[in-house]
Design goal:
alpha/beta; globular; two-stranded antiparallel ribbon; 9 helices; Rossmann fold
């Protein structure tokens, strides 16, 4: 797919971290970008900075997501690219010791359900709404391509650490959705891929640095090569390649410096 000013894109979680880097890289290439985010102030400012449109979207709410796509399409036309970076997740051990009661407790089923909603279900919600819009459009290439959908999964989906039953399980479900969805959409010319980032210098990791720089540095040293955390611009670079290279389809691609996460 050509990356130029004829392309309209939606980036969820676009006001920070991996989403922000992806939105900026696309905008720098001339793409018309709609930034979906729950953070209104940051999202409005960033969208204005890159010449895009901001849509306040709660990925847990179907009506909110539908409204976001409607606003983006009114501004830029039908999106042909969706980069889904937004996530709502939690963590906790399956069974852990509770110092307050002096006994053991299990992670609440509701925590699993909320994370499944914020990771897996929200990914389907965003992708399916986008695909429905793309389905009725004319192809943009000789191959018959109508669109490209990129999920953000995680290395935790394959290397889940202690306390990542909810998050790792949710991202694993995202991985498992890639191939069947790509097959569902193949006759429509819509590609589906996922990026599995390792440890990146996004806001959660930068907060770690503020609290304990030694811990932050240790996270970087755990990466085989290069011995540092990933740069969000490196994630954005892969987004650009997955967009322009039509032969990437139904892939789950690790972007992690070779790290394989230890149990804890």
């Amino acid at each position: 797919m050509k990356i130029d000013n004829t392309l309209a894109a939606v980036v969820t979680g676009g006001a920070s971290g991996l989403g922000r880097a992806s939105a900026k890289a696309l905008a720098d290439a001339g793409v018309k970008v709609a930034v979906f985010d729950i953070s209104e102030e940051a999202g409005e400012a960033f969208a204005a900075e890159i010449g895009g449109v901001f849509c306040k979207v709660n990925i847990l709410d179907e009506d909110s997501v539908e409204a976001g796509f409607a606003k983006a399409r009114a501004a830029h036309g039908q999106e042909r690219l969706v980069v889904h970076c937004a996530v709502v997740a939690g963590g906790g051990k399956t069974v852990s010791f509770d110092k307050t009661t002096g006994g053991y407790k299990r992670m609440a089923t509701e925590q699993i359900a909320r994370t499944a909603e914020g990771v897996f279900t929200a990914t389907y919600r965003v992708a399916s709404i986008a695909a429905l819009g793309m389905a009725g459009t004319d192809p943009v290439s000789d191959d018959g391509e109508r669109g490209c959908i990129i999920f953000t999964s995680s290395a935790a989906s394959q290397d889940g650490q202690i306390g990542q039953v909810a998050y790792g399980g949710g991202k694993g479900a995202v991985n498992a959705m890639v191939l069947p969805m790509a097959r569902d959409l193949m006759d429509l010319g819509i590609r589906v891929n996922a990026i599995l980032p390792g440890t990146f210098a996004t806001p959660p990791m930068l907060r770690v640095k503020e609290m304990n720089e030694a811990v932050y540095e240790g996270l970087g040293k755990a990466v085989p090569f290069p011995k540092r955390l990933g740069n969000p611009d490196e994630f954005a670079s892969l987004v650009l390649e997955l967009t322009r290279n039509t032969y990437f389809n139904a892939q789950c691609i690790r972007l992690d410096g070779g790290i394989r996460m230890p149990p804890k």
